[in-house]
């Protein structure tokens, strides 16, 4: 089956990214892995390459496009090489949609040029200790000062990807208490400058996978946030968060499919070169059957991921469809990567082999962006169950 989702521009971008990864990332990736994060100056290189500006209007230094297909190419090429671009995915996939949707013209002039260049890296802070997927249960507060010039932010967030290097963070906070009728009422979004007094980064979290992507705990103690940094209208934050969940879940779905595809590539290469009992592992029937079954699953996941991508670009991807794509692609990737690791034998458990890192990196896909159980609930609700 011939893919139709990409055109010549996307393939030219693919060649550029592949060459960039080989030259700038692969030679130093072990150092990033050991350090637990990509270096800050790497993001300037991504800015120079134009990665951050693809979907940013031209007047603010971007390419002015409105598509997720270049992001899709990035997912495929980073997975193919067995690398991760630090926390940059959050910068583009999670933070940018809020800026494009909510920022005023004045805010866009302040935020977007630095966003494009990598001078200001962005993160999104929703999750709090003890709340998990229950966003409406957040305790972080932002109270307007008596003179009306700023909000005073207090609280804590956790599992914030990109939180160590972030220069600005979109923080979700309560500007008023929830109402008796609606727990989601009273949440607002703020573009918080991480250099603000009272803003602090707690632990850089020690994760099972995604080792080069910095993830942190954040704390706010009487942080003054100028009213000019409120994103959108006060109290409407929860609806804004829901608006962008479809694109976030598509990203996790597509990234998972790309990881599964890469796992088959790694396994096929390994079993072709590895010899046991006097012949390559690839010659055994079990190996052929396992890889064939994995390839069939990858083909199916690719079709689902591509269909969701086309729907997202057309503005037609529904929450239930995004949940379905995420559920299917993450579960496929889980099965495929596990089977491909098994074909590596003991070496598959060694971090020097990309399949081992991929196995650990992939596991979180069934948790963040909404767990698989949450996805099933969304799908069931759409079915009228």
Structure description:
This protein is an alpha+beta fold. Helices cover 48% and strands 15% of the residues. The protein contains twelve helices and ten strands. The protein has a four-stranded mixed sheet with strand order 1-4-5-8, with helices on one face. A four-stranded antiparallel sheet has the order 2-3-7-6, with no helix packed on it. The protein has a two-stranded antiparallel ribbon with strand order 9-10. Helix 1 packs parallel to helix 4 (69-81), helix 4 (69-81) packs parallel to helix 8 (245-273) and helix 8 (245-273) packs parallel to helix 10 (319-343). It is globular, with a radius of gyration of 21 Å. 45% of the residues are buried.
Proportion in β-strands: 15-25%
* Largest beta sheet: strand ordering: 1-4-5-8
- What is the CA–CA distance across the termini? 35 Å
Order of helices and strands: HHHHHHEEEEEEEEHHEEHHHH
- 3D shape: globular
Output the structural class: alpha+beta
Q: Can you tell me the residue ranges where pLDDT is under 50 for at least 5 consecutive residues?
A: none
The major beta sheet can be summarized as: 4 strands, mixed
Oligomer: single chain
Number of helices: 12
Radius of gyration: 21 Å
Q: Tally the beta strands.
A: 10
């Amino acid at each position: 089956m011939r893919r139709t989702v990409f055109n010549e521009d996307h393939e030219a971008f693919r060649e550029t990214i592949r060459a960039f990864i080989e030259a700038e990332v692969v030679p130093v990736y072990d150092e990033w892995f050991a350090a637990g994060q990509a270096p800050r100056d790497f993001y300037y290189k991504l800015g120079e390459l134009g990665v951050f500006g693809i979907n940013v209007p031209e007047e603010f230094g971007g390419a002015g496009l409105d598509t997720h297909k270049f992001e899709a190419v990035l997912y495929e090429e980073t997975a193919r090489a067995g690398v991760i671009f630090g926390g940059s995915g959050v910068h583009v996939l999670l933070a940018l949609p809020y800026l494009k949707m909510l920022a005023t013209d004045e805010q866009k002039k302040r935020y977007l040029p630095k966003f494009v260049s990598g001078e200001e890296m962005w993160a999104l802070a929703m999750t709090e200790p003890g709340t998990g997927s229950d966003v409406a249960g957040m305790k972080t507060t932002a109270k307007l000062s008596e003179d009306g010039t700023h909000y005073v932010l207090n609280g804590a967030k956790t599992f914030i990807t990109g939180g160590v290097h972030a220069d600005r963070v979109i923080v979700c906070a309560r500007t008023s208490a929830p109402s008796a009728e609606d727990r989601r009422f009273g949440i607002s979004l703020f573009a918080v400058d991480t250099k603000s007094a009272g803003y602090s980064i707690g632990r850089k979290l020690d994760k099972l996978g995604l080792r080069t992507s910095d993830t942190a705990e954040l704390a706010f103690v009487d942080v003054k946030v100028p009213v000019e940094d409120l994103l959108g209208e006060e109290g409407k934050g929860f609806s804004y968060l829901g608006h962008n969940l479809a694109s976030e879940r598509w990203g996790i779905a597509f990234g998972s499919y790309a990881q599964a595809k890469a796992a088959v590539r790694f396994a096929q290469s390994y079993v072709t070169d590895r010899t046991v009992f006097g012949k390559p592992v690839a010659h055994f029937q079990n190996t052929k059957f396992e890889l064939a079954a994995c390839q069939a699953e990858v083909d199916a996941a690719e079709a689902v991921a591509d269909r969701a991508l086309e729907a997202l670009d057309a503005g037609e991807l529904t929450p239930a469809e995004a949940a379905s794509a995420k559920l299917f692609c993450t579960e496929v990737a889980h099965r495929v990567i596990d089977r491909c690791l098994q074909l590596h034998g003991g070496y598959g458990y060694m971090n020097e082999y990309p399949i081992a890192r991929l196995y650990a990196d992939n596991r979180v896909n069934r948790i963040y962006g909404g767990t698989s159980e949450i996805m099933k609930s969304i799908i069931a609700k759409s079915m009228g169950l």
